[in-house]
Amino acid sequence: MKKRILLVDGNALIFRAFYSSYGRANLTTRSGIPTNAVYSFINMLLNIVQKNEYYDIKVAFDKGKKTFRHDKLESYKAGRKQTPPELVQQFPIVREFLSEAHIDWYELDGYEADDIIGSISNMVKETDDYVVDILTSDQDMYQLITKNIFVIAPQTGTSDLITYDRDKLFEKWGITPEQVIDYKGLRGDSSDNIKGVSGIGEKTAKDLLQEFKNLEDLYNNIDKITGPKKQKLIDGKEDAFLSKEIATIYTNIKLEDFSFRETKINFNNLKDFFIKYEMVSLVRKYSSEVEDVEPKQTINFKKVSTWNSSYSDKHNYIYLEVLNDNYHNPDVIGMGIVNAKGNFYYAFENQQEVSIFNWQEKNIDENLQKFLLENEFYSYDIKKTMYVLKTLGYQIKHKNFVYDMMIACYVINSNVKSNFESHLNLIDSSLEIETFDEVFGKGVKKTKDIDENVKIKYILKKALLIEKTKEEIINSLKETNQYELYQKVELPFCYVLLDMEYAGVLIDRKELENQTQNILKLLTNLEKEANEILKRESIEPINYASPKQLKELLFVDLGLKNYNKGSTDKETLDALLGAHAIIEKVIEIRKYSKLYSTYLKGFEKFINNKNKVHTIFNQTLTNTGRLSSTDPNLQNISIRDEEQRKVRKIFIAQENYIFLSFDYSQIELRVLADVAKEETLIQAYKNNEDIHELAARNIFGLDANEIVSSDQRRVAKVFNFGILYGLTKFGLSKDLKISQAEADQYIKAYNKTFPMVQEYKDKIIKECEENGFVETMANRRRYIYELQNSNFMVREFGKRAAINAPIQGTAADILKVAMINIFEMLESKQLDAKLVAQIHDEVILHVKNDNIDKVKVEVQQIMNQAYDDLLKIANKNRTSDVKLEVNSGVGATWYDLK
């Protein structure tokens, strides 16, 4: 039986792996080492190896830039882009992977990977003992194809493969493997800067080689060729033969100590390698290949349906698992409890899961209730844990839930995906656990009816890992100077959010129904108007919700300018405004369709039998520190567009209650003025000047007597807020519809007015390039690896993020401190009022009518003081140079608040 050999063009494969995952800056180790190309390279190689029975695997690399081909052609491969530095770093890691896997790899001075592979292929081409697959995307390798040597070429990224034999090559180029070097001699190869014959393209080269055997035969019969083609060939003869020589793979290298041997990949070594480079998904993927050198850890446990006081201990590590993402309506699976008395699995088998609004009817375990009220608990996502326990009927004390692994890991690195296995990998990549989907399934296959032992051990393992990692996590927070942020801001903030989620907001169903009907009518009319526009041009109506149909309408039927490769996104439609009457209608249809599907019809499924919605506030999803919300999303209801703003009318206060809202005025600009020490801005805020008018006067060179027009103020406003998001002359010219030269002048005038702002931005980017992260005033870190990327667009994104993150993150931290202090004030003074929502820089309270004045005074004072409180928490030993300004509103609905 023939032995099958895999020869891998290491350089070609790692380049393809890198560019197939290009821009994925999050594929780095905690220390910032990029691993995207290594990860894709490994996946590609091991996937192929697992699908085929290879006896031996050899990998070849280019060793240096200069080879014998450069001696023949100095410009060989000249003009190629420099290898990105983040890819250069990964070549030695790929070699390390191969060594750990016990896969032979080769590199030789003066030769390319092609020559090494060619020489190995040459050893076997005349024998029937071996079949060889050459894995490469380099088309030069086609010349090596024989009856027992094949080229397997990646097509899309690094997944699909095409196998080239003699027939497949003829189908592609119309030539034989022996003619590949003649083909390259005629048409050249731009990727290697091989010239070929000027004016001879792919089709002509193919036709010539189907008539003549090779270049020698062609030039021996040059008189048989007529017309301009003949002269091109005569003029290019020297180039043709030189190009052929350069394209010829050298096949006579003597490789020292070379032999074919059975490759047995060492998955035990690879496990250590995967852990070292934090590729936990590969550990899980290939764990079945690893020999069990040590027996797997046995988790001893006791399953209980009722608690016993003998199981109780002062310190407890718990993990409560639910099946559905929306834990407000939980399908409880069970709870793992780990303490000095043992490992316990609490099954909740004797309790009904009923609505949160019927707590008094619960059939609860009194011993478990006592346990929860008298001891301390360390968990993962304690907001979810406490909410579910409350839903099941248990009273809880916030102060008893003293540690949250999820929040702590979020503080350590907010770029990491917020789930248990990702956070575990962040702390210790040698620790492993299956994903929720691997245990319980996903989508329609998700179920808790699985093997009970598997289920129990999975949940208990999480509780045990919370215990195992706690000390290291706390130490990491202290080492990065983020412990106070965790302990005094994020942890107490989760109790505030928990209370807000409990409270919910009352919905006016009649108002919701009226708005839903009105938007439906509006959409119907808009679609009629749009169809009339199309009818005038004899075009059939389309489904405006279909990107495919819209793309065909805009770029085929109407022939409008295709700005973005057929995209019909908002940016593209905005750019097309004015080009055709249909564009405005499409934009309107999109806007109101989203309003209908997300905030009107979309809200209905979240309203419970008490006419309330209880959103989930996501504390650990954004990498800026800001909140998001889901089920339903309350964050994106616009207050600028009147139709969207009307949606706020559906949120109503209960009888004898009213809403109070408080929002910070220009909080991010005020933070910028403070952190940048921009004296002009600081003084303007102290004097209560109009910041936008001040900026406009300087941008447009107006003196004190000249009136600032509304357009000039609008431009200044774009500047003042855009400066936080890395405003560029390109972006400004696009936003304001002015030339880039004009935009550049505006930017220079702005920077002259506020010189410390530009100095601050330059300083932040420099620090981020050196450290890999930026910090808020509360020491919250945001890691920005994009600044190390060789891709200009990715780097520019990194710069914008670096400038914005400290400002936006500090603003978010200020709001959190304010809300914590408001929450604690309401509890301590026992006022009949509750925080019910936070939307961007606005907080909304639901207040008993007779408490309004007192709450208003207290909240105003707390919010004014919040920045200084944050600076104190972060041990900055100073107060802010800019005082915060708080606007307030009062109303029976959210609509009335603004």
Automatic annotation (TrEMBL):
<keyword id="KW-0378">Hydrolase</keyword>
<dbReference type="GO" id="GO:0003677">
    <property type="term" value="F:DNA binding"/>
</dbReference>
<dbReference type="InterPro" id="IPR008918">
    <property type="entry name" value="HhH2"/>
</dbReference>
<keyword id="KW-0269">Exonuclease</keyword>
<keyword id="KW-0234">DNA repair</keyword>
<keyword id="KW-0548">Nucleotidyltransferase</keyword>
<dbReference type="InterPro" id="IPR002421">
    <property type="entry name" value="5-3_exonuclease"/>
</dbReference>
<dbReference type="InterPro" id="IPR020046">
    <property type="entry name" value="5-3_exonucl_a-hlix_arch_N"/>
</dbReference>
<comment type="function">
    <text>5'-3' exonuclease acting preferentially on double-stranded DNA.</text>
</comment>
<dbReference type="Pfam" id="PF22619">
    <property type="entry name" value="DNA_polI_exo1"/>
</dbReference>
<dbReference type="Pfam" id="PF02739">
    <property type="entry name" value="5_3_exonuc_N"/>
</dbReference>
<dbReference type="Pfam" id="PF01367">
    <property type="entry name" value="5_3_exonuc"/>
</dbReference>
<dbReference type="InterPro" id="IPR036397">
    <property type="entry name" value="RNaseH_sf"/>
</dbReference>
<dbReference type="InterPro" id="IPR029060">
    <property type="entry name" value="PIN-like_dom_sf"/>
</dbReference>
<dbReference type="InterPro" id="IPR001098">
    <property type="entry name" value="DNA-dir_DNA_pol_A_palm_dom"/>
</dbReference>
<dbReference type="InterPro" id="IPR036279">
    <property type="entry name" value="5-3_exonuclease_C_sf"/>
</dbReference>
<dbReference type="InterPro" id="IPR002298">
    <property type="entry name" value="DNA_polymerase_A"/>
</dbReference>
<dbReference type="GO" id="GO:0006261">
    <property type="term" value="P:DNA-templated DNA replication"/>
</dbReference>
<comment type="function">
    <text>In addition to polymerase activity, this DNA polymerase exhibits 5'-3' exonuclease activity.</text>
</comment>
<dbReference type="Pfam" id="PF00476">
    <property type="entry name" value="DNA_pol_A"/>
</dbReference>
<dbReference type="InterPro" id="IPR043502">
    <property type="entry name" value="DNA/RNA_pol_sf"/>
</dbReference>
<dbReference type="InterPro" id="IPR012337">
    <property type="entry name" value="RNaseH-like_sf"/>
</dbReference>
<keyword id="KW-0239">DNA-directed DNA polymerase</keyword>
<protein>
    <recommendedName>
        <fullName>DNA polymerase I</fullName>
        <ecNumber>2.7.7.7</ecNumber>
    </recommendedName>
</protein>
<dbReference type="GO" id="GO:0006302">
    <property type="term" value="P:double-strand break repair"/>
</dbReference>
<feature type="domain" description="DNA-directed DNA polymerase family A palm">
    <location>
        <begin position="644"/>
        <end position="851"/>
    </location>
</feature>
<dbReference type="InterPro" id="IPR054690">
    <property type="entry name" value="DNA_polI_exonuclease"/>
</dbReference>
<comment type="similarity">
    <text>Belongs to the DNA polymerase type-A family.</text>
</comment>
<dbReference type="InterPro" id="IPR018320">
    <property type="entry name" value="DNA_polymerase_1"/>
</dbReference>
<keyword id="KW-0238">DNA-binding</keyword>
<feature type="domain" description="5'-3' exonuclease">
    <location>
        <begin position="3"/>
        <end position="264"/>
    </location>
</feature>
<dbReference type="InterPro" id="IPR020045">
    <property type="entry name" value="DNA_polI_H3TH"/>
</dbReference>
<keyword id="KW-0235">DNA replication</keyword>
<keyword id="KW-0227">DNA damage</keyword>
<keyword id="KW-0808">Transferase</keyword>
<keyword id="KW-0540">Nuclease</keyword>
<dbReference type="GO" id="GO:0003887">
    <property type="term" value="F:DNA-directed DNA polymerase activity"/>
</dbReference>
<dbReference type="GO" id="GO:0008409">
    <property type="term" value="F:5'-3' exonuclease activity"/>
</dbReference>
